[in-house]
């Protein structure tokens, strides 16, 4: 998925269900200068999404241990 975020940043957003963000990223990606910021944006967004899932999993596990 990280390779997809770097090579086709807009598609990375589309696959994750962020359609409007994907369209904005595609517009940015169309320009040659905008390709690098679009790829960085997609990679950071992917890492943040993974971190959010890990945190949610940890919170659920902690709540289950309290019971």
TrEMBL record:
<keyword id="KW-1133">Transmembrane helix</keyword>
<dbReference type="InterPro" id="IPR000612">
    <property type="entry name" value="PMP3"/>
</dbReference>
<keyword id="KW-0472">Membrane</keyword>
<dbReference type="Pfam" id="PF01679">
    <property type="entry name" value="Pmp3"/>
</dbReference>
<dbReference type="GO" id="GO:0016020">
    <property type="term" value="C:membrane"/>
</dbReference>
<comment type="similarity">
    <text>Belongs to the UPF0057 (PMP3) family.</text>
</comment>
<protein>
    <submittedName>
        <fullName>Iduronate sulfatase</fullName>
    </submittedName>
</protein>
<keyword id="KW-0812">Transmembrane</keyword>
<feature type="transmembrane region" description="Helical">
    <location>
        <begin position="27"/>
        <end position="47"/>
    </location>
</feature>
């Amino acid at each position: 998925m990280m390779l997809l975020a770097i090579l086709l940043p807009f598609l990375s957003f589309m696959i994750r269900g962020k359609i409007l963000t994907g369209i904005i990223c595609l517009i940015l990606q169309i320009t040659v200068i905008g390709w690098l910021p679009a790829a960085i944006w997609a990679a950071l967004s992917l890492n943040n999404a993974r971190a959010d899932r890990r945190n949610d999993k940890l919170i659920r596990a902690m709540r289950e241990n309290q019971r």
